[in-house]
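Q: Please design a sequence for this.
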């Protein structure tokens, strides 16, 4: 509305749209694609211990093409001691096929995908901004990512909130003399 315009008494003003708040929507950093879990337990001797020759044979016989362009969480559901090199061999076998390989459960995979996407954010662009980290999302965002975004925004913002621009929970406000 221009300074010389007169607002009609029944005119509805969208105060959220006119607000200086910047919304940080983590849904925008979701990496689309299929996620799968590769459990190496079946490749252990009696599901309990790793025999190198048998393990290498299992890797050789496995159909790795099924992981083409997928995001893979590598796990071992057995309560067994698995040497580090075994997971490294699995990663080597997956490398030509998978879009991403993470040692850990699906939530750790998801967190790593968000971290990779957040690495592209030009954080200084949030200097002196009032930011609300959007709380509702159509995709599952690991809680660890909310903590990570908080840590990355804190050096730059003047205030940080959580929720929706129309209903926020204040989290941080920079001191006036800081």
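A: Design:
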């Amino acid at each position: 509305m221009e300074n010389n315009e007169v607002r009609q008494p029944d005119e509805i003003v969208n105060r959220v749209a006119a607000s200086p708040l910047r919304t940080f929507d983590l849904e925008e950093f979701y990496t689309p694609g299929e996620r799968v879990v590769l459990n190496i337990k079946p490749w252990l001797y009696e599901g309990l211990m790793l025999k190198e020759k048998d393990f290498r044979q299992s890797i050789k016989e496995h159909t790795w093409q099924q992981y083409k362009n997928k995001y893979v969480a590598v796990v071992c559901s057995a309560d067994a001691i698995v040497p580090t090199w075994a997971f490294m061999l699995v990663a080597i076998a997956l490398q030509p096929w998978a879009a991403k390989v993470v040692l850990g459960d699906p939530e750790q995979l998801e967190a790593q995908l968000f971290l990779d996407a957040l690495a592209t954010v030009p954080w200084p662009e949030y200097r002196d901004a009032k930011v609300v980290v959007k709380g509702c999302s159509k995709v599952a965002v690991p809680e660890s990512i909310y903590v990570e975004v908080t840590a990355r925004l804190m050096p730059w913002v003047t205030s940080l909130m959580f929720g929706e621009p129309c209903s926020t929970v204040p989290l941080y406000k920079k001191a006036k003399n800081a």
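Q: Thanks. Anything notable?
A: The chain has five helices and seven strands. Residues 106-118 form the longest helix (13 residues).
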